[in-house]
Amino acid sequence: MVGRTAERGLTGSSPTGGGAAWAAPLVLLAVAAAWGLSIGLSKELVDKLPVADYLAVRYTIGVAILIALCPRAVMGIRGPELRHGVVLGLLFGLAQYIQFEGLSRASIVVASFLVSLYVVFTPMLLAIARRRRPSRVTVIAAVVSLAGVASMAVRGWSFGIGEALTVLSALIYALHVIWVARWATAGKAIAISVVQLAVLSLVFTVAALPGGFSLPTGPDWPAMMYLATIAGVAIVAQVWAQTRMSAESAAIIMVLEPVWASVFAVVLWSESPDLRTIVGGALVVAASVLVVVASARVRPGDRTSRETLSCS
Q: What confidence tens digit (pLDDT) does each residue in 151-185 have?
């Protein structure tokens, strides 16, 4: 099972078929919206708490929620799931820490769109691994997405430490997307996610202890509980969806995250987007629609995955 998944991750084939072909893209769209809302909430919390403390609390609660919902998933953890989950957890944790350190030093709009550059890094890294060019659809969608990001984010701002950290986190997120596609399977999504969250909880708790552990204050707990719940549910959904799509397609759909973040910023934080932001958002949406349509096509020789997401 791991070998078949690894081959799919590097070749970019998508075991889709019928109505199920649309399920993975739609799940990723919902995940992107959930993560988009989390950006603004996270910005509020990292302005009040050290990044390690914030992430420690978030993922400790997140893994507890996931285990409570699916206790049998822990029993299903075997050697491969443990090894792969640890590596994926370390990759994701490193990306998260760097991203939120950057977010604490940059504006939320600039940071949210810079992190979406992993949509470009993913097919480029895959092309290096494959020793061949990315597909035409991937190249077109990546270029359109990059144009959208540039329209929304490039405004003459200086490229400081916050921006540099955010770009670095995008590179690590691209690696995480690729290795999820290589290792994870729909049937083991929860088991791997439990390991990932446990690793995140442990690593950030240890990192937070030397300086003294800080907890959110009363008014901040609802936001923290939302973020913790999303940490469990959204990661599981994302892993499940990525096992049924190519890594490039998953990355480009997930670039909608900053678009959702902008929508929530307008609705919840009363920010007013300008014309460049609207145009850039439209370009990103166009690229995502292109990938959704492409990923829904049944390719000759592809087999429909019969694995299901469960707590067993």
A: 766 655 556 788 789 889 999 999 998 888 788 66
Q: In whole angstroms, give the CA distance from residue 228 to residue 39.
A: 13
Alpha-carbon gap, residue 244 to 140, rounded angstroms = 21
Q: Is 44 exposed, middle or buried (0-12, 13-18, 19+ CB in 10 A)?
A: middle
SS3 217: coil
- Region of 179 please: left (phi>0), alpha (psi -120 to 50) or beta: alpha
CA nearest 112: which of 257, 254, 265? 257
At a CB cut-off of 8 Å and minimum separation 6, what does 96 contact? 55, 169, 200
What residue has token string 């492409």? 294
Compute CA distances 91 → 47, 85, 257, 281, whole Å. Answer: 24, 10, 19, 28
268: its two tokens? 């919840």
Residue 34 · residue 191 · CB < 8 Å: no
| Residue whose C-alpha is closest to residue 256's, from 300, 287, 221 | 287
192 and 80 Cβ atoms separated by less than 8 Å: no
Are the C-beta atoms of residues 292 and 248 closer than 8 Å to each other?
no
User: Of 245, 235, 230, 229, nearest to 190 (Cα)?
Assistant: 235
**131 Cβ contact list (under 8 Å, min separation 6):** none
DSSP 104-152: TTS-HHHHHHHHTTHHHHHHHHHHHHHTSPPPHHHHHHHHHHHHHHHHH
Domain boundaries, the chain: 18-209+218-295
Alpha carbon distance 87, 109 (integer Å): 30
Q: Is 0.90 surpassed by the pTM of this model?
A: no
pLDDT tens per residue, range 113-166? 778 778 778 877 888 888 887 778 878 888 888 887 777 666 555 567 887 898
CA-based torsion, 297, 298, 301, 303: positive or negative: positive
